[in-house]
Amino acid sequence: MVIAINKPHPDDAHKRAYALAPIDLAQGNSHIMFVYFYENKRGLSNFMPTDVLFKGFLQAANHFSILLGYLESDTKHGTVLMDNANPNVPHFEEKHSDSHFNALAKHNYHWDKWPLGLDTQDIVEQQAGKIPLLSTLLMRFADNSGVALRVKIRHSVMDGNGFTLFMNIWSSSIYTGKPSTCNPDTEFIYNASFDFDRSALLSAANYITTTNNIKLDGKKSQAPADNSTGSHLLAKRLHRMHIIRFSANALDRLKVDFSPNDGTISINDALTSLLWRAYARTSSKATNAHLMLACDIRKRIALLSNYMGNASFPLRLEMKQEHLLNSFGHTIASEIRKIVSSVDKKYVHECLAFLDLQEPIADAEKWYNDKSSFFCTTNCSRFSFYKTDFGFGCPEKVLVPHYLTPGFSIWVPTKESRGIDAILSTFDKCFEKLSIDAELLKYGQIIL
C-alpha cells in the first residue's frame, strides 16, 4: 500500500516519488499476467491492427502515471520514481506464430499447447537497468485467424482491480461504439488446490494473502526458476485442479439461506461459511478449525488518488471444529461478517507494522507450521473479464492469474519428513470427500 503522499524528488522539479509499503512488495518481482484470446470470426484483413492497439495502450498507461515510473526497491522497501522528462516507456511487442487459432481453441487454450513465445512468464529483461512496469505481447496466429494479447503489470504498483480497469480503459479508448454481446461471466469457478512450495515467497504478506486457485488449465509458473525441462515436467506432475461451479442463481439462493434477517451477510460471507464447513467435514480430527481470508480495505482507509495497488489484508478466524460443524450456516456466516466488519484503519496499520519487522517470515512460518492444515479463501471479486472489446468482438477466452481468481485453498505445510506424493494424496482424499458433501452439492456442481 502506498503510505506516503507523492512528493517532489530532491534532484529535479519534474521528478516525484511514490513510496511503497511492504505489502506492495509482497509479490517481489512478479507481474499480474492476463492472456486474452481473440478469434477473427469475420475474416477481417485488418484484424486488431497493431498501430491502433499501441496508441490506445499508451493512452491507458497515461491514465495511471505510476505505470510510467521506475521501480527502485530492495527486499523491504520500494519507491516508484516518476520522471516526466524521461518516462519508463511500457513494453509493447508483436510476434507471429505458425499455429492456427483453431488448433489452440480445440485444446481449450491449454497452456501446454501455447505457441512458442507466448508461454513465457519471465519478466521483461532490464534495458539500461530499467524494467518496464507494464508490458504487452501481441501474438498473431497463422492465416490471420486470431490474436492473443498477453498483458503484464507489475504487481507491486497495481492489483487485479486496477488491472481490470486498465484493460477496460484501453479497449474503450479504441472502440466507442455499442459493445457487442459478450460471453456473460455469470458463473464463479472455484478451483481447489494448494501451494506445494512456498520457498520462493519473499515476505510474510505472501504467506498471508497468496492462495493457489488455478483458473488456468495448467500452471507453468509452478516450475522452479531454472526453466529446465525437468522443472516443467515436475510442474505438470504436481498440478492439481478441481473445479466446483456455482451459478449466479445458486449464489443468490445461498445468500438467502445463509442470511439472518438483518440482511448484512454478503455472498462472500455465505460462500465462505459453506466451503469452510464442508472442508471441516473432511477431517475426523477433533481440533480447532482455522480460516484465512483476504479483506479488501479500499473503503476503510484513505488511499492516494487513483491508487490501484495491493489492498487486500489478511483475516484469521479460529474456532472449535465442533462449533463450526454443529452451528447453522448463517451463524458461521454472521461470525465471518463480524470479523470482516472489524477491519479498520488501526488494524491495517498493525498489519503494516508487522510486515515491516526485520524477520517477519520467521513469525509467519511459525504460525503456519503450528497448524497441520488450514482453509483459505479469496474474495469473490466480480472482475469484468469479458468487456475488453476493442471493436472486433469480445475475447473467446481469458486466462487469469491463479491469485486473482475467486476460490479457495487447502494449505498443507511442506515438511522434509513428508514426500510430495503423500501431500498430494492428502489433498486428493480431502477433495474426494468434498465432492460428495451434501450441503455443498446443494449449491455447487462438481465439474472436474
TrEMBL record:
Superkingdom of the organism of origin: Eukaryota
RNA-binding recorded as keyword: no
Gene3D superfamilies noted in UniProt: Chloramphenicol acetyltransferase-like domain
Keywords: Transferase
InterPro entries assigned: CAT-like_dom_sf (IPR023213), Sec_Metabolite_Acyltrans (IPR051283)
Protein name: Transferase
Species whose genome carries this gene: Coemansia umbellata
